[in-house]
Design brief:
The protein is built from one helix and 30 strands. It is an all-beta fold and 352 residues long. It has a domain of 159 residues.
Length: 352
C-alpha cells in the first residue's frame, strides 16, 4: 500500500501546490460512544513517566507507562477487551498504531474502521471518524504538541484490483480534529508530514525541500535544499535532528528551526547504516541506531549516543525513545530495556 520514494525506502528501518484548510464541520461521532466531560477540555499535566506503544503481531498493541526507575505498567487497553492490531503504516502519512497524547491523558487508535480516542483515566471514548468503506485506510498522523488537536488521514481504496499494490489507494486526505470545539477541518498539506513544533507549525517534506506550515501558509525550514528523512523534534522545539542524503550515503544532521540552519553530526555513512536519530527532551543529546553484521538477511542493530555504543548489537532491536535527559527505553522483540545514557541498566520490565 505504501508509496515510498527511493530515499524513504533507503531510510525505512530494517528493510520508516500550497492549500488552506477548506471547511470546518461538526466531527462525525460514532453512535453509542461515550464522550469525556467538558471538564477535561483543559487536560491536567502529564502523569509521571512516558507512554510507550508496544506492538505485537500475535497479542495486539498495548500502551505502557515506562518510568526512569526501570519499571513499566500497562495502562491500555484493558486486558479483558479485544486486542487491537497495527495494520497500516505509511511514511509521511502516519499509521493506525495507537498513539498517546503528549499530556498523557488520551490515546488515539483505529478499530473496525473507526478512529477512536479514549480517556486513559476513566476509559470514556469518542468516535472521531468512521471510514466511508471498509477497505479504506485511516491513519493516526500526530497529536498537536498541546494535545488539543489530532491530525489524521484517510486513504480511499480505488475501484478494481490493480496489479500494482502501490496504486490500490488514492492520495491521503488530511483532517484536523479540535477537542475544544469538537470540529473537524479538512487540511491540504503541501508535502509529507514529518513533525509538529510547539509553535504550532507543522514540518513537511516536499522532495528536497523542508517546509514549515501553519494557517494555510508555508515557508522554508532551511535556506538550502536537501533531502531529509526520519525527523525528530526536541520537546521544547529548539532542535530537530534528521537523516540527510549526501554524496554516496547519508548523515545525521541537526537543524535549528529558528535560524534556518543545518549542521552535520558525525561523518557520512552508507545508506541505512545509521537510522532513526532521536534528540533528548532538552535538545542537547542525540542518540541513533547503527547497523552491524547481517546474517541470514537480518541485520544487527545497536543504540549509540554521540560516538559511544550504548547497547549490544542485536537482531531483535526495534526502536528506542528518550524517557528524560538521562534515560532511554529500548524496545526489542518481546522485551523492553530501560537504560541510563551512561550504560547503567535500570530494568527489564515484564510485558503483557
Amino acid at each position: 500500500m505504501a508509496r515510498l520514494s527511493w530515499w524513504q525506502a533507503a531510510m525505512a528501518f530494517g528493510l520508516w501546490a500550497c492549500g488552506t484548510p477548506t471547511s470546518t464541520t461538526s466531527a462525525p461521532v460514532v453512535p453509542n460512544a461515550t464522550s469525556p466531560s467538558s471538564s477535561r477540555e483543559e487536560p491536567p499535566r502529564m502523569a509521571t513517566g512516558k507512554l510507550v506503544t508496544i506492538s505485537d503481531r500475535t497479542e495486539g498493541d498495548a500502551l505502557y507507562r515506562v518510568l526512569v526507575d526501570g519499571t513499566a505498567t500497562r495502562v491500555w487497553p484493558p486486558r479483558d477487551r479485544a486486542p487491537i492490531f497495527t495494520l497500516h503504516e505509511e511514511l509521511g502519512v502516519g499509521s493506525d498504531e495507537m498513539q498517546a497524547s503528549p499530556d498523557g491523558q488520551r490515546v488515539a487508535y483505529v478499530e473496525d474502521g473507526v478512529l477512536n480516542v479514549s480517556h486513559l483515566e476513566d476509559g470514556s471514548t469518542i468516535g472521531i471518524f468512521r471510514a466511508p468503506h471498509i477497505e479504506d485506510a485511516i491513519f493516526v498522523t500526530a497529536w498537536s504538541p498541546d494535545s488539543h488537536a489530532l491530525l489524521y488521514a484517510l486513504e480511499r481504496r480505488l475501484p478494481g484490483n490493480p496489479d500494482d499494490e502501490a496504486s490500490t489507494y488514492d492520495a491521503a486526505r488530511f483532517f484536523l480534529y479540535d477537542f475544544r470545539s469538537r470540529t473537524t477541518t479538512s487540511m491540504s498539506l503541501p508535502g509529507e508530514f514529518h513533525g509538529w513544533l510547539p509553535s504550532g507549525e507543522i514540518i513537511l517534506l516536499d522532495g528536497d525541500q523542508a517546509l514549515l506550515f501553519a494557517d494555510g501558509k508555508h515557508r522554508p525550514l532551511l535556506s538550502d535544499r536537501v533531502r531529509l528523512g526520519q525527523l525528530d523534534v526536541s520537546a521544547d522545539g529548539s532542535r530537530i535532528v534528521a537523516m540527510a542524503a549526501v554524496d554516496h550515503g547519508s548523515q545525521v544532521v541537526s537543524i535549528d528551526p529558528r535560524a534556518e540552519r543545518m549542521k552535520p553530526l558525525g561523518t557520512p555513512r552508507r545508506h541505512a547504516d545509521v537510522q532513526w536519530p532521536h534528540v533528548s527532551p532538552n535538545g542537547e543529546i542525540v542518540a541513533r541506531m547503527e547497523r552491524g553484521r547481517t546474517e541470514g538477511g537480518i541485520p544487527e542493530w545497536a543504540v549509540f549516543i554521540e560516538e559511544r555504543q550504548l547497547t549490544p548489537f542485536a537482531k531483535t532491536l526495534r526502536s528506542f525513545t528518550w524517557l528524560d535527559e538521562a534515560t532511554l527505553a529500548v524496545l526489542y522483540d518481546h522485551e523492553l530495556l530501560v537504560i541510563a545514557r551512561d550504560g547503567t541498566v535500570k530494568g527489564r520490565p515484564q510485558l503483557r
